[in-house]
């Protein structure tokens, strides 16, 4: 792009024009001589004091408080480059577009980010909205800046089926760029914050859409990275635009809750706390505040409480110098006001997942009003407000903290990479990220004393995957506080969990019904997908070979040219993919076999019914029971070894095995190609579910006697249901696991010998 600016080492812009486009009628090159670099910088940016001017000179003044002169000049050069690139572009509000990148850079300057990050902020929209490309940015500035800008840019050059898919793909791109450089997400958070501050110029529909995305994605990310002040502002702005009426109702309720009296109460508590600190000779700051509106709303929603039921609407913070002083202050406040039982949390000893540390306690304050007090050190306060950004803001002293947010963020980013690897598509990946963005409130220990933070409601399986993916994939049992416990057991604070693994174990699809963490869910799904694909390929090979054999061919002897032509025609990349399609029931093996064997024409086009069943399926497929997820047993008739069986193709699932007399097969009489002749292998393996109904007279303990008899004969009861018939008789319906029809007959004979049993039968629900 041709450049017309005359930026030099001794020139700086005075200000952007107050109105109109940034173009030839209002050139951005309006400059004035640089002030000496030894001027005294302002304590805080002028815009924080209510000054709404968009002055790049003020921005450079503030940068001088922590950046050297050559880096300030580089930022100024980036500003001029961005202003020229966006020349003629305006925001929805009508102001020149360059106002927005400058405001984003100001937000990052408040966080004391490095100059490369500020340059990227000033240029963060040029790839997306102007002809400037990544290569030009790399050449003009640096490869680092180009990577940052590219990471923030949306995917606009690809076609997507829906807005949701496009949004998910862009967020996936940004999050993966964040795993390479955390500053990508800091720029995006600053970008979103300024967009939310200026959202009023957007249409109501866009306001709601952007606010929903902010509340679902960006505010939780800010929280996950520990940047509290950005999280709170994003939440309140999103709340105001997405649920404006709910916000007004809560605001009115707060004002009507004895507003003047409450203000006096806040002052009274602050005075009492300061006096208590002075008496003990403790130096510290005391601040009282009203909890922000979205926090109040979220507590009402999550706990299903009305506003009148909320007590701790006001919170106080005591900031002291050292950790041991925090615990001294805790004793002071508990002596001053009565603590609420069960409401004390020690986040100093056990930090939150984002590195947050503090002591939290709830007290009964003046007038019986419940208040919350947070006690922390100055370092903890800086980390609480800035989180990962403290890595750049306060590089000395903070990194020795036991809750290093940079290290914790790195762990989270590693989890993101694992989710990306195992997720099926960008929408699924985004759903996993949403689950993962709400940090846990349950803290459990390994046998060696290591602490793991999990989402509330997390189970043993979630804990196993939190340790390592391989531990989760092979877990078979667990001990909680040295006692055996099922894998589905929800965990509670303070428990010690030991995972028991087995080398041949693998994830169970049923785990997806109770796991709550994103890492567990994505690993289970990914592992099951791989297993299902392998099983489908094995079954598909068997099915195709069974159809090729009577045609005088085998998979290994197929003509390569004909096979390659067929794969190209169907859009499949390899023979393994073809096996997988057959095994999943998406393609029919008889038709493919005739095509690959070169048997085409009138005979192959004739209806299956005219050729006879034996011509279509001359060989029966032997069912062993170990085929996995691609061979399913129908729940309507529940076939077991010894039953006459047949199977139907189910696209996406593989084949479904029914008993031959199942009435649900009636609709497939004229669709022979949809059916598959199968039989049990000579030595089927595993256990198969079936159902029996036992009619008994009402006697005490009869259920236990029947269950004991079933267990004696080596069967496991999966489910039992009682159906009251009258005052004298009851039906007991059992779903049990058996090895064969002979095994079931032995169980039924044994149960029939029990005196209260009047009748027993096998249930068919078709």
TrEMBL record:
Compositional bias annotation for Basic and acidic residues: 1-13
Pathway info: Purine metabolism; ppGpp biosynthesis; ppGpp from GDP: step 1/1
Enzyme Commission numbers on file: 3.1.7.2
GO MF annotations in UniProt: GTP diphosphokinase activity; guanosine-3',5'-bis(diphosphate) 3'-diphosphatase activity
Chain positions covered by the region annotation Disordered: 1-27
Domain ACT: 691-765
Family from the record: Belongs to the relA/spoT family.
NCBIfam families: spoT_relA (TIGR00691)
Name of the featured protein: guanosine-3',5'-bis(diphosphate) 3'-diphosphatase
Species per Swiss-Prot/TrEMBL record: Allochromatium humboldtianum
Taxonomic lineage: Bacteria, Pseudomonadati, Pseudomonadota, Gammaproteobacteria, Chromatiales
